[in-house]
């Protein structure tokens, strides 16, 4: 599956956005205020965004929940329905652009769109490409029982199970090793 630079940027943004949501009481919302939203926008180099407000924060949190639903969707038909709703509500206006040193790519958000509509359109379309390619199962949640962070499995054989093999994966492998050693010792 060919993933262009702008699609990859949108995938990174949507994964990061979904992962800002609290998972139960143990983890805080990491998108708590407008400055955190501004940092998110800056970190993901999201263009054409004006002055951010509490309204923008509320709208982004709403679409964050809708994106989380796409990662939780059990089949492509459900994911497609959620993506269609999200993209349609954003009022997409596809247009070719080359800006900030990037080659030609497509923006799906309308000029002057809010940051929420921008994310809904561009990230929604990035996720739509996975459904169209029959790769919706690549939109996953970490299998570590104490994690559940979202990620996109871009491995060749669709075998990635953890959001980060150096943390979640390694922690589970070490725990399993210790359990085997303890059982063998008696």
Provide tags for this entry.
6% strand; globular; Jann2411-like fold; two-stranded antiparallel ribbon; mainly alpha; Znf_CGNR; ABATE; Zinc finger CGNR domain-containing protein; ABATE_dom_sf
End-to-end span in angstroms? 49 Å
Rough outline? globular
Domain count: the total is 1
Oligomer: single chain
Strand order of the largest sheet: 1-2
Fraction of residues in β-strands: 5-15%
- The CATH topology name reads Jann2411-like fold
Structural class: mainly alpha
Residue share in helices? 40-55%
CATH H-level superfamily: Jann2411-like domain
Number of strands: 4
CATH-defined architecture: Orthogonal Bundle
Characterize the main sheet.
Answer: 2 strands, antiparallel
The H-and-E topology, N to C, reads as: HHHHEEHEEH
Give a quick summary of the entry:
It comes from Streptomyces phaeofaciens. With 186 residues, the protein is mainly α.
Word description of this protein:
The protein has 6 helices and 4 strands, in the order ααααββαββα. With 186 residues, the protein is mainly alpha-helical. It has one domain: Jann2411-like fold. Helix 1 packs across helix 5 and helix 3 runs parallel beside helix 5. It is globular, with a radius of gyration of 18 Å. The termini are far apart. It comes from Streptomyces phaeofaciens.
SSE arrangement:
Blueprint: H1 5-18, H2 34-43, H3 54-72, H4 76-89, E1 95-97, E2 105-107, H5 115-132, E3 139-141, E4 150-152, H6 165-185
Antiparallel strand pairs: 1-2, 3-4
Organism: Streptomyces phaeofaciens
Protein name: Zinc finger CGNR domain-containing protein
Domain Zinc finger CGNR: 138-181
């Amino acid at each position: 599956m060919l993933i262009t630079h702008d699609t990859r940027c949108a995938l990174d943004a949507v994964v990061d956005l979904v992962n800002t949501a609290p998972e139960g009481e143990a983890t805080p919302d990491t998108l708590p205020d407008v400055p955190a939203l501004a940092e998110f926008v800056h970190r993901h180099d999201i263009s054409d965004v004006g002055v951010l407000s509490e309204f923008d924060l509320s709208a982004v949190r709403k679409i964050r929940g809708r994106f989380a639903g796409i990662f939780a969707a059990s089949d492509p038909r459900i994911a497609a329905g959620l993506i269609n709703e999200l993209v349609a509500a954003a009022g997409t206006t596809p247009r070719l652009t080359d800006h900030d040193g990037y080659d030609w790519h497509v923006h799906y958000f309308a000029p002057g769109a809010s940051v929420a509509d921008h994310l809904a359109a561009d990230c929604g379309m990035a996720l739509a490409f996975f459904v169209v390619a029959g790769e919706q199962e690549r939109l996953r949640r970490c299998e570590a029982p104490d994690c559940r962070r979202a990620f996109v499995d871009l491995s060749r054989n669709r075998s990635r199970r953890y959001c980060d093999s150096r943390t979640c994966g390694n922690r589970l492998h070490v725990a399993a090793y210790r359990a085997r050693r303890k059982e063998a010792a008696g």
